[in-house]
Design brief:
7 strands, 4 helices, 7-stranded mixed beta sheet, 142 residues, 39% strand, alpha+beta
């Protein structure tokens, strides 16, 4: 089930950050995002366990997918797709006509997912990611 993230999800989301990203977002950043008028956080929960979460920022009519992560044992089961569908539904409901995101160049699974939603690679940010150093591909839909 997908639902809006709540304060009591912070511990599980912070754990997902540490599992999924080499540079995890801090507890404070996650908590402040919950209170931001521009950010929407969603979690995918099954049997009381958080399998994934995502963050969509909408500002001046443009959307940015800032985070999407799925617990490694739950990947390739449609969790990421359902999170993307929820963010897209929300963005459309707010009149967003363009959504962008950045992804590690080597993350082929994520890039295929984004392409299946109509995103296309538009630019590259050289050495954007650290640990390990890698380019970011900027993908845009709309």
């Amino acid at each position: 089930m997908i639902r809006r993230m709540r304060e009591n999800d912070l511990e599980a989301v912070a754990e997902l950050e540490k599992i999924c990203f080499s540079e995890p977002w801090s507890w404070n950043l996650l908590e402040s995002g919950l209170h931001s008028p521009y950010d929407e956080y969603y979690v995918f929960e099954e049997d009381g366990k958080l399998l994934g979460y995502c963050n969509l920022r909408v500002l001046a009519g443009e959307g940015e997918i800032e985070r999407i992560c799925v617990r490694p044992v739950s990947r390739r089961l449609g969790v990421g797709r359902k999170l993307m569908e929820e963010m897209e539904r929300s963005a459309c409901g707010q009149g967003v006509v363009r959504i962008l995101l950045e992804v590690r160049e080597s993350n082929e699974a994520a890039r295929r997912l984004y392409e299946s939603f109509g995103f296309a690679a538009e630019a590259v940010r050289k050495n954007y990611y650290r640990d390990p150093s890698e380019d970011a591909v900027i993908m845009i839909k709309g």
